[in-house]
Specification:
Blueprint lengths: L2 E6 L13 E4 L17 E4 L11 H8 L5 E5 L2 E4 L2
Antiparallel strand pairs: 1-2, 1-3, 4-5
Length: 83
């Protein structure tokens, strides 16, 4: 299920929940949210970038930073540690 970000249309009518913006985990089949669940003020869905593969170091860099090792097969039963 995707996480959607919402923010108030009008800051002067908004509550402490929707004024800075909030996130909700919703099914794609759920009805779109148009009002704040706390105060009833009109809100809009923000467009946000995903973090999947967004790292400059890529998968190998993240795996190395997390302490994993990558092995390269040299021959039958022989492996070389690349990081």
């Amino acid at each position: 299920m995707p996480i959607y970000e919402f923010q108030a249309n009008e800051e002067n009518k908004s509550c402490d929940y929707c004024k800075p913006g909030f996130e909700l985990l919703m099914k794609m089949s759920d009805q779109p949210l148009v009002v704040c669940p706390k105060c009833g003020n009109q809100i809009y869905k923000k467009i946000s970038a995903t973090a999947v593969g967004a790292s400059k170091s890529g998968f190998d860099g993240r795996a190395k930073a997390a302490g994993f090792h990558k092995l390269k097969k040299l021959g039958k039963g022989e492996y070389e540690k690349t990081y």
